[in-house]
Design goal:
Layout lengths: L16 E5 L16 H15 L3 E5 L16 H11 L3 E3 L6 H9 L3 E3 L14 H8 L4 E4 L21 E3 L1 H14 L6 E5 L8 H8 L4 E4 L4 H7 L14 H14 L2 E3 L4 E4 L8 E4 L7 E5 L1 H13 L2 E5 L12 H12 L3 E5 L1 H10 L7 E2 L3 H8 L5 H4 L7
Parallel strand pairs: 1-2, 1-5, 2-4, 3-4, 5-6, 7-8, 7-13, 8-9, 13-14, 14-15
Antiparallel strand pairs: 10-11, 10-12
Helix pairs in contact: 1-2, 6-8, 7-8, 9-10, 10-11
Amino acid sequence: MDLSVPGLDALDVSGKRVLVRVDFNVPLDDEGHITDDTRVRAALPTLRTILERGGQPVLLSHLGRPKGAVVEGLRLNPVAACLQSHLGRKVLKLDGSSGPEVEAAVDASNDVVLLENVRFHPGETKGDPELARAYARLGDVFVNDAFGASHRDHASVTGPARLLPSAAGELVQSEIQAFRRVLENPARPLVAILGGAKVSDKLKVVRNLLDRCDAVMVGGGMSYTFLRGQGYEVGDSLVEADQLEAVRENLRLAEEKGCALLVPSDHVVADRFAADALVEVTSEIPKGRMGLDIGPDTRELYAQRIAAARTVVWNGPMGVFEWEAFRAGTEAIGRAVAASPGYTVVGGGDSVAALELLGLSDSVDHVSTGGGASLELLEGRVLPGFAVLGSVGG
């Protein structure tokens, strides 16, 4: 898998309008205030570089899932105010993202321009080529700095790169560099920790990592399909019966390839799926009980593997960490990853949220800004938003 893409140094931005796809899909409270501006701050290095080199950024972003309709609560006005505060210079927010009026406003402005939510267009998520051409008319060159959207073949992600000279922004470049260190030539031992609810979401990741990892450690709801596949009783735990054969094939391949594929040996179980459920720790899961976290023996074993590793990648929580009774497994993994002497990468929204909840984000070498995109990289897939970069000559 080739992860090389042209960077900003390959693009002449001086005196040019630089169309930049950013990911400003920030969380908002009920009053429309931004509750976490991490994604806005993540775009600042690219924007400052463009400005320092004499370019004018024209920004494209989505926010939420308006499904092709104008939703007043998903306009990008709060983002514009936040970005202006961080940049320390004027940001012109427009009420549209394409068309003659938008083109005229961009032509008349020397400020940073933030276009309206691209997902107000029904053609955005369908990759509409006419909409892509409308976006391309707003810039002279194109920069993709939206790692979290790069696994989507959407009009604002891939379309402009097919029409304009293009490159990756600094955020995308940092993400690529991190995953190259994991996937291409990692320091060994390389271990992966995979969690989350559904095994069907992660089986392709497991399969790809078996060729690369010294150990893959499984937790979360997905682990119970693995355990059932090995013949263990798992009570009322989450099991995807239609994935059992695929799980058994992965277990067989792990043995063939010499990769340790580890599953929990003990569990925090509950009598029902609730924050105040009756909780106990057990090595077997009886009927009437469901596993909702990894147990203390598993935490210790996984932490030992992490401590001995020189490269660690983590995607997915070990249990229902949102509830305190089932947080210990995810906390143990988070602390082990943060304390690891090796190179550490964490991806996936829930894993990142867990790190932030525990105050450990600053102790990890790379915290990815894209859950779906990072997962597809770990599957070994080429992201559409990367594949098109540099396809048009300057």
